[in-house]
Amino acid sequence: MNPIQGLHHLTVMASDPQKNVDFFTQVLGQRMVKVTVNFDDPGTYHLYYGDETGAPGTIMTYFPWPNAVKGRRGNGEIVAAAYAAPVASQDYWKARLQGFNIPFTEETRFGSPAIKFEDPDGLWIEIIFEEGADVPSFWPNSPVPREHALNGFHSVTGWVAQTAQTESLLTGPLGFTKVGSEQDAEGTRTRYRGQSDGVGLYIDLVERPGKPHGQFSAGSVHHVALRTVDDAEQLEYQKVLSQAGYQVTPVQDRQYFHSIYFRERSGILFEVATDAPGFPADESVDELGKHLKLPAWYESKRAAIEARVKPIVNHEYGVTIGGTSQSSAQGSAASLSDGPRVNGPHQGQPVMTTGRALDEARTAVILVHGRGGSAEDILNLSQQFNLSAFAYVAPQAQGNTWYPESFLAPLERNEPGLSSGLQMIDDIVNTLGEQGIPPENIVLGGFSQGACLTLEYVARNSRRYGGVFAFSGGLIGPEGTPRDYAGDLDGTPIFIGCSDVDSHIPLKRVEDSAEILARHGAKVDKRIYPNMGHTINEDEILAVQKMLQEVSARSV
What we know:
This protein is of the alpha/beta class. It has helices spanning about 15-25, 90-100, 165-170, 230-245, 300-310, 375-380, 380-385, 415-435, 450-460, 505-520, 540-555; strands spanning about 5-15, 30-40, 40-50, 60-65, 75-85, 105-110, 110-120, 125-130, 155-160, 175-185, 185-195, 200-205, 220-230, 250-255, 255-265, 270-275, 310-315, 320, 350-355, 365-370, 390-395, 440-445, 465-470, 495-500, 525-530. The longest helix is centred in the C-terminal third of the chain and has 18 residues, at about 415-435.
């Protein structure tokens, strides 16, 4: 297995897609080599910029979320992308940025002059002036002359609390070489080099102990992708990284490359991507970026997708891509509960959110924490699911518990907390409906006590939901509790995962719950894990991730 060559691409969130197009094509002189959609969120563009052919090591990619607020830089993420340019181009680029009224600062990076500025959403873009590899394939229609053209990536900069834990990944399984360190305004900057002579060789880490994590939104880096030669070598990396303790995804077909993903211990999301098949796989080089390209599994939804995405102009061809309709179906705001409204201990407690803003999302996940947990804790599942289509919503229980006794206790002994918690979930479902997200686009899930509350809610409020998942949970109440729930779950996919020796959740209750929910119309995927304990495993995360991907695809 060869060491990682260097950078493949960087994927970032944006807000206004046309401003993004104009900045990269008209200011930086990069070619828009592909217009497609986020395969996990087909109502959102995925825009790719690079050299003439989209060579690995030149590619910046963006997911534009219209009207998204700017994110906040912090630890656990990539905060800057640096291009390389010839040393003699310094004056040209300073004048060019001034001509576009883009402010910049001048710096020195490991002895090389550099300038730093922001893209339209606040991501730091840097140009480092030093001699190195030329751009793999210069775009002849670029507004930037060839002698001053950006030569692809130079490096990316990540902020971390401790360099050592990320360094062990880079210099260990990934095969980077440590170059050296210097002082940065934020802390000690350490550089690592990939093993090739091409472009995009470096990763810089700046150590910032005790500093806060960033807030993900427009201008935030979603992930950084590293280059590997082919599928066989990628599978070797999947094996080696898994053996090193990283949770690595199955191979994802991204049409233009194949990908695996894992999050390192500081919080940075990495991808290992293959060089092939490349961007000319579905368009000739002469027409790269001219059309909205969709994978075969979305072609049947082309009209709906083109109507949903905002129109953008590709200046190379003078063509407009995308439609003008931004309307979406509105869900019912009527309460799903037939009984009177409950006012109990959880009413008035905070509800935390992350991911898509509610007024921009088509889909949502309601996450319900367990006993002793918190809304903030369970929102971390959004990072493990790693799907940007969703608004993630997490209610907070008063005193960090939804009801006082075991979920197997008589129902009256868990009141008023039980009814109050169910009401809180119902309020969130109705609020999402008011925002245009109907129940069939909502996934509800939780862990432990939160899983029990979630299953009880959907059983008492049976209808078609986008999906339901219960990590270590079952329906609430003692043996013999009547289960004559009204309504029909109408094919709702429900995932239930639990250990066979969970000290809190008896196996029989898990099996009984799965059977009852199936009788009420759910499509239940029950998985029992031998000797797992009271926790969540990787197989469960992947199962729910697949459920979420299917909900996102249906929501267009």
